[in-house]
Specification:
By secondary structure, this protein is an alpha+beta fold. It is built from 15 helices and 15 strands. The strands form three sheets. Strands 2-1-5-4-3 form a five-stranded antiparallel beta sheet, with helices on both faces. Helix 13 packs antiparallel against helix 15. The radius of gyration is 47 Å and the shape is rod-shaped. It starts with 15 loop residues before the first helix and ends in a 5-residue tail after the last strand.
């Protein structure tokens, strides 16, 4: 028969002081037998186990009979013996005392316990007995250990990710930070915090923005922002995100969020932006050199080769005048030479125009008219040029050439892919900016698909615009045509 099933008569008799404390003996025995925690009852000056319940004996691996009469210290771990008498003394002085210790089982294994001691006084008010509740707190300790381990892992993960967490009690205006959050903001751990003390660390130029976003967040807008902070005079970047929690009545309770140190990310981002800008400046420089070389080659072809071809045609004409009548076969040969020379002159002119249209020297509007006229003649697509009447657009050569090349690339794309019957080009100058639109009524396309294919024509248009700090946008959809919009900043007028 187990201790739990052991009849009450097998237990020692209860001391009279306990029985007369308010409950009959059978009630006390019922409590002793059914309690899941250990209960020990002993005289004031006794150092032995006198009366215990089955649960106490069971947790130590004994029966009640086996433990009865043994020294109290037998159930304590050796290193706890020194503190045993002191804690008993404190329980007598205070009347109630709680402490934690280590007990040992019959097999020598150890387990943590919580001792809750209450003293019972006699008629003269002196301590007569001790009533001790003993609880095995092994599961609690294991839970606490797992919790501490998880907290340590969380702290380690936060430190590695440079990610701290925080909680703001909105009604009380109390801000709580994890250790990593204190480190990110350069504040000593444990420093009392409020929303205002946090805001004081924010970079002065960003405080209004952060406060505005937080107020908007409390009204329901998502709170996910990036801003600067000042830590010992050093500027850092952080990303903050938060979610709001509410009381049952719908009023704000607290904000719970995270702070990530993104200083290194911002530095790399700035380095990447500088690198991209360097590449664009290099590309712009190379494009300028290419355009200058094209202009030089176009002039040499037009002036040098064109002059030689013209002189050669004149010589052929003179040869025909002098000898063509008397030598019909020679006259026929000279006529063929003149046709070949004329064709070559046309090729040279087209080549020179392709390298550098002479119309560009007369302004962008004139060059656009020449370009659209030739495009309409070659493709049969109706072209319309929309520009202010009665004025010529004065642009520096670099911008005029860039816009001309953008128009060339746009028309090439339309001819290849759009299946359009009409193209409209709008060029207009506003205050400080040049606006260009190329609109066709073709079959259109999905911008997402085009971005996935990385078409170099559209990429080239974008890069030409970015060289001048401008912006470009393409609006299109299947069977809905395409509109290219370009805005290029203009230098200030003297």
């Amino acid at each position: 028969m187990s201790e739990r099933e052991q009849p009450a008569e097998a237990l020692p008799r209860f001391p009279p002081a306990l029985v007369t404390a308010g409950l009959p003996e059978d009630v006390w025995r019922n409590v002793f037998e059914r309690a899941e925690w250990g209960i020990v009852f002993g005289l004031k000056d006794s150092d032995r186990l006198e009366l215990m319940n089955p649960a106490f004996a069971r947790m130590h691996g004994y029966s009640v009979v086996e433990l009865t009469g043994r020294p109290i210290r037998d159930v304590f771990a050796p290193e706890c013996h020194a503190d045993l008498l002191e804690n008993i003394r404190l329980s007598h002085e205070r009347g109630h005392h709680v402490w934690e210790s280590w007990h040992v089982r019959r097999d020598g294994s150890r387990f943590p316990v919580r001792m809750d001691v209450m003293t019972i006084q006699d008629a003269e008010g002196e301590v007569a007995y001790r009533l001790v509740n003993v609880q095995d707190i092994s599961e609690q300790r294991e839970t606490e250990a797992r919790l501490k381990e998880r907290e340590a892992m969380l702290e380690q993960a936060q430190a590695q990710a440079h990610l701290g967490s925080w909680r703001l009690d909105i009604p009380r205006n109390v801000l709580e930070w994890t250790d990593e959050n204190f480190r990110i903001f350069g504040v000593p751990t444990g420093t009392p915090l409020s929303y205002e003390s946090f805001l004081a660390i924010v970079h002065p130029d960003d405080r209004a923005y952060v406060d505005r976003e937080w107020q908007a967040g409390m009204r329901g807008r998502p709170y996910d922002i990036q801003h600067r902070i000042l830590v010992n005079g050093e500027v850092r970047w952080v990303r903050e995100r938060a979610e709001l929690e509410f009381f049952a009545d719908g009023s704000l309770w607290r904000g719970v969020g995270t702070t990530q140190d993104i200083t290194e990310l911002k530095q790399r981002e700035q380095e990447l932006l500088r690198s991209r800008q360097d590449v664009r400046e290099l590309a712009a420089h190379n494009e300028k050199i290419r355009e200058a070389e094209r202009s030089r080659i176009a002039r040499e072809i037009h002036d040098e080769l064109g002059q030689y071809l013209t002189a050669l045609r004149m010589d052929a004409a003179m040869l025909n005048i002098r000898f063509g009548m008397s030598h019909p076969e020679l006259g026929e040969l000279i006529g063929g030479m003149k046709e070949t020379i004329d064709t070559t002159i046309g090729v040279v002119r087209n080549l020179a125009a392709a390298l550098r249209p002479a119309a560009l020297d007369m302004g962008l509007y004139s060059a656009a008219e020449w370009l659209l006229s030739g495009f309409e003649e070659r493709t049969g697509i109706t072209c319309m040029l929309d520009m202010p009447e009665g004025e010529e657009l004065q642009l520096d050569d670099e911008r005029a050439t860039a816009v001309f090349r953008i128009l060339q690339e746009s028309l090439t794309n339309i001819a290849r892919h759009a299946q359009a019957s009409m193209v409209r080009v709008h060029i207009e100058r506003h205050v400080g900016v040049l606006e260009v639109e190329v609109d066709d009524n073709g079959i259109g396309f999905s911008p997402v698909d085009v971005r996935a294919r990385k078409t170099f024509g559209l990429m080239g248009i974008r890069e030409r615009v970015l060289m001048f700090g401008g912006e470009s946008r393409i609006d299109s959809a299947p069977m809905a045509g395409t509109i290219l919009r370009v805005r290029i900043p203009l230098p200030e007028q003297p």
